[in-house]
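Q: Is it fine to ask for two folds in a single conversation?
A: Yes, each is treated on its own. Send the first.
Q: Here.
A: Result:
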Amino acid sequence: MIVLDENILNGQRLLLETSRWAPRQIGVDIGRKGLKDEEIIVLLRRQRNITFFTRDAGFYLPDLRHRNYCLVVMSVGQNEVAAFIRRFLRHRDFDTRSKRMGRVIRLSHAGLAVWRLRSQFEVHTAWSRPR
């Protein structure tokens, strides 16, 4: 399941809805508006196989890794979110749920930074061509 933070613009959500991914959004489809970061983490841990997208840099912490979800922090402009989500979900290293779970990831124009479950090191990955 793809879940967007409430800080993602509605227009970006609508762009994603036209693709094969049907995102849910905090405060609209899941949870309630105004959830605090800690409450979002609790919500994610109660679910399974969620990939959560946010622009809130406070989520990019290795301590937030969990086997039930993937956290993706996007360091891109607010009007670039949908394009980067699609690009990420097509990336050969993250194109299935099983490849994403247990990771905390930061997306930027330069590439991806990844904290994997049970790893002591952050890994940097370049953008690759989609399959």
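Q: Second one now.
A: Result:
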Amino acid sequence: MILRPLKIGNVTVDCPVMLAPMAGYTDAAMRTLARRYHCGMAYTEVTSAEGLVRGSKQTLHMLETAPGEQPIAAHIYGANPDILAQAAAFIERTGRFQTIDLNCGCPVAKVVAKGAGAALIKHPEKIAQIIRAIKQVVSLPVTVKTRLGVAPDRMNISEIAQAVEESGGAAIAIHARCVTGRHTGQADWPALARIKSERSIPVIGNGGVLSAADVLRMFAETGVDGVMIGKAAVGNPWIFQEAWAALHGRRIPPPSMQERSSVIEEHLRMLIVHKERAGKSRRHPQNSAELSAVLHFRAHLAGYIRGFKGSAEVRRTLQGMRRVVDVMAAVNGLQAGETRAPVPS
């Protein structure tokens, strides 16, 4: 397979395997590790346009980046074209981001209730209106992340993709499931292939990618320009390295438990710094930065240790972990029982 860089407007993504935006996961710490292991581009967590315009410190904190993250996309949500345009203009002024990505697929009730996220799927003309409004005030490429439709009997991804392209969108990322499917069930890769054949802007595929082999399959079976990995990258930044190697006709051994332990601790330490900064945006932080980081890290830890002997016992004790030393003691206790590489989630 010939690996071609992904062009999003004037932005070049050398390795077109990307980290999907995930609320509660894709902060600077996770993105930094993914980029180290050949992730070509990452997206911020979903960020409120209204919060940015209001100057909310907690919302602004979600746009914090680390050195060397470029290219990176600011992933925002909202329903008001003017507010979204103002937020996009602010994002461009930070000088941190290379693209602005509009969320048109989040199924969370409080987002949908505001007419944002997945609610926009029903209104391709509104998506086009938002893109045009943003493009009037920024020079950065504007992209969209969406789903196939609200439900299997109401798939309108062709209309959405047409609206994105005709309004000047630079690329579209498609989670190959409907809103009703959330993150379960078979991803509809043939639909990705159809949209790729219909449109001239880059199409990025998402959904059902659990391994490096799946990355190769999605490229081969759908012809998409890029592949986006979500949950399978949680606690597994090495999936990007494995995909990069596979795309270059190589295979690499899975990380040892020693390497895994080192990265776990590094991830935790970065999270503590991240939480310290987040605490400054709150008047009365409830927890210490270390406790907040450990609590936040539980979902990541389950991915990091999956497939190792004793990992089930560690997962059972997650609720009692309060300090980095607690986490590392549990992780280091697994090393002697290492049996095989973790299975991607």
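Q: Anything structural to flag on that second result?
A: Two points. Residues 336-345 have pLDDT under 50 and may be disordered. DSSP finds 14 helices and eleven strands in the chain.
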